[in-house]
Amino acid sequence: MAARKSSRKESKLFVLDTNVLMHDPTSIFRFEEHDLFLPMMTLEELDNNKKGMSEVARNARQTSRFIEELISGRELDLYEGVALEEASKGQATGRLFLQTEAITSVLPSQLPMGKADNQILGVVHHLQQMQPKRAVVLVSKDINMRIKARAMGLAAEDYFNDKVLEDTDLLYTGIREIDLAFWEKNGKDMQSWQEGGKSYWRLKGPECPELHTNQMLFQAGEPFAARVVSVEGKTATFESLKDYSHQKNAIWGVTARNREQNFALNLLMNPDIDFVSLLGQAGTGKTLLTLAAGLAQTLESKIYTEIIMTRVTVPVGEDIGFLPGTEEEKMQPWMGALEDNLDVLNQSDAEAGDWGRAATRDLIRSRIKVKSLNFMRGRTFLSKFLIIDEAQNLTPKQMKTLITRAGPGTKVVCLGNISQIDTPYLTEGSSGLTFVVDRFKGWEHGGHVTLQRGERSRLADHAAEVL
Predict the structure, then answer these.
(1) How far is the C-alpha of 101 from the C-alpha of 122, rounded, in Å?
(2) How many CB atoms lie within 10 A of CB 122?
(3) Beta bridge partner(s), residue 228
(4) Beta bridge partners of 235
(5) Among 274, 265, 273, 272, which Cα is nearest to 295's?
(6) Using CB atoms within 10 A of its CB, is residue 377 exposed (0-12), middle (13-18) or buried (19+)?
(7) Which residues of 148-186 are buried (b: 16+ CB within 10 A; e: fewer)?
(8) How far is CA 15 from CA 19, 96, 117, in A?
(9) How far apart are CA 251 and CA 345, in angstroms?
(10) Which of 36, 45, 74, 411 has the fewest CB atoms within 10 Å, i.e. the most exposed one?
(11) Are 42 and 17 in contact (CB under 8 A)?
(12) CA distance 81 to 28
């Protein structure tokens, strides 16, 4: 193997840890011109994790299928490695090597060889000694594994290929501030007109192509607030927003308390927008605004037949488990946020009295269904208002599974806070929520707003700042 590689010194040899394959089965096709090496221990751990219905088990099985397809019929050439180019449709031009011989590498005596991680480190150490002129790099999602590798003088990296963004500060906020200079540069041939109670502006200029459809615009110190309706070349059309901060436009008794909440309600109440994502810290009003908009459009304007709310049950993990009762009752402990917000929405009608409020509560409950994520595959939702809460804990693949459930007339709303991720191996850059915000950016039927200001209480705001 060492002799064969002498002609390709510039390409690296990446040794894959099991968690990379279980995180992204397609990772074996994502290393471009570089070669991959799978230690026997990685295959053994894949085998140990293949049972069950969890996402990890599914990914382990899928990885095994990919490897089987690659090596079937090539058993005699495994020592030479298997070319990845054909299977990856040209994405990867390197080769895949499996461990075909016993490797007994001398590791520091403090590292017991019985442990799987240490056996993989032993393989990396051996390969580095065998191929001193070539970069041999361990790729692992496990931080401790990378620390141990570096302590032994071995190169180690995280798996970055699934990251949508390297820096979440660059994530699309859905909002842009414009100033007088913007109007001067782009407003020379501006047209404006009124239609259906709304104002419209059409501008042409060098900064218009930088705008995204359904981006929210505001001008500091001015009452101007608009949504970008369309961007065609250097021409952009804006539409004025409805002012949901005024009591006369209250949604189910809820008014917008700041600019971003007003932007969010404009997206949530727009029947032409099928997908809305709301990002924000705790207490910015994501769930309350979404539920108020959902109830108004389900019970008052009857655009949707019911509200479906779902979220990841992270601490229980794979199953909603041994809690007694039906699916709804098992999900109840996770739905504290829903209960709290319904209490707020139910208090809005002061004249109704206790009986009236009890009747309203029952009506609301009959229209809100709580579902577990585990039973979503294969379903189609027609004319539903689907709320995905705590969406930052979903992987991009799970997010795709959920959003593709939407049938005709369904609106999907994703809520989350990317600084509160509870799922192991997910980071701010690789979360499914970051993924959808980035991919839906500029789609004519999708909108996004990042909420900035907490509106819970002065105590909660102060705690968020100082703690």
Answers:
(1) 13
(2) 20
(3) 238
(4) 204, 232
(5) 265
(6) exposed
(7) bbeebebbbebbebbbbbeebeebbbbbeebeeebbeeb
(8) 12, 10, 12
(9) 10
(10) 74
(11) yes
(12) 13
The residue whose two tokens read 């459009």 is 297
The rounded distance, in Å, linking the Cα atoms of 77 and 99 is 12
| Beta bridge mates, 199 | 194
Whether 293 and 268 have beta carbons less than 8 Å apart is answered as yes
Q: What pLDDT, on a 0 to 100 scale, did the predictor assign at position 106?
A: 72
> What type of residue is 49?
N
The residues, any chain, with a CB within 8 Å of residue 392's CB and separated by 6 or more, are: 416, 417, 418, 420, 421, 426, 431, 432, 433, 434
Domains of the chain and CATH, by start: 2-157 (3.40.50.1010), 169-240 (2.40.30), 254-466 (3.40.50.300)
pTM for the model stands at 0.72
| CA–CA separation, 317 and 299 (whole Å) | 34
CA 199 to chain centre: 35
Q: Give 215: exposed, middle or buried? Use CB within 10 Å, 0-12, 13-18, 19+.
A: buried
